[in-house]
Amino acid sequence: MALGKNRRRDRGVDYWPGFVDALSTLLLAIMFLLTVFVLVQFILSREISGRDEVLNRLNSQISELTELLALEKSGKTDLEDTLANLQSSLSTSENERSRLQSLLDRGTGAGDAANARVGTLTDELSQEKQISARATSQIELLNQQIAALRAQIAAVEGALQASEAKDQSSQARISDLGRRLNVALAQRVQELNRYRSDFFGRLREILSDRENIRIVGDRFVFQSEVLFPVGGNELDDAGRVEMDKLASALLELAQEIPAEINWVLRVDGHTDNAPLSGSGRYRDNWELSSARATSVVKYLITRGVPANRLVAAGFGEFQPIAEGDTPEVRSQNRRIELKLTER
């Protein structure tokens, strides 16, 4: 009966770790989404900046071509006015020539003067015709230049429209890529969380009888006294027994996790804040915590756990879970933490 009560009590306490797992998962997912959002915004801003530079260059070219077209139109107008004036002068000269020729025909006695006047007007008329022909040729050339400018403007407008269409297509592809990446990240997080929950559930079943082994957040915590002798880094007999259980659970779980999930088991070594004596093997708590984490990793490798799935880290006394200098507090801080995470 006492055993049944203890198990019911344990099952009641197990809700808290699940809540912490869910909360940490939510925070990780939010961090992933924020990272993806910042990355997509950065890529999008670079794409838009490049499009803006192209659009500015095209707008500058259009402005220059428009100015040239205005100048050409102004020159054409001037030539047309000159041609109109020449044609008016030509018409006046022809009328004067007709009048003089009429006077000559009537034999008024001023025939010689009239003939001289007719010759002069004829020469002037010939010169004006030549000027008119040159003006017509210049107008034709201007019309050709205007047509070429219009063709260039049409080409620039076509390129501008194509650039805008390409920019819209790029933005749509970026948006779709961000959406698919978010979905993939969410799926990966959910899968890893499911296997993490399975892993901790199995460890909880295997190691539930030990009071000095507990779960803190998303980590499985062994007190150092369970695994190591005081001040040492070599696993004792009891520690090797516990690591055998851990290796069995890891090997069983590794067969179920898909290959595309790049998971690792991080082994973190922690000590209390008591300084080591200078005559010991280790100079400080950094070296001791790192050596203990490395010993756990090496032992798990000897039990068949792949080396690429293990990470050892030492934190010394700088990551305590309890504050104070009492023996009980220091005992809590001397620990090995296991965390299943993604590389």
Automatic annotation (TrEMBL):
Gene3D superfamilies: 1.10.287.1490, OmpA-like domain. The chain crosses the membrane at residues 20-44. GO terms for cellular component: membrane. It comes from the Bacteria. Residues 216-343 form the OmpA-like domain. Keywords: Coiled coil, Membrane, Transmembrane, Transmembrane helix. This is Peptidoglycan-binding protein. It comes from Endobacterium cereale.
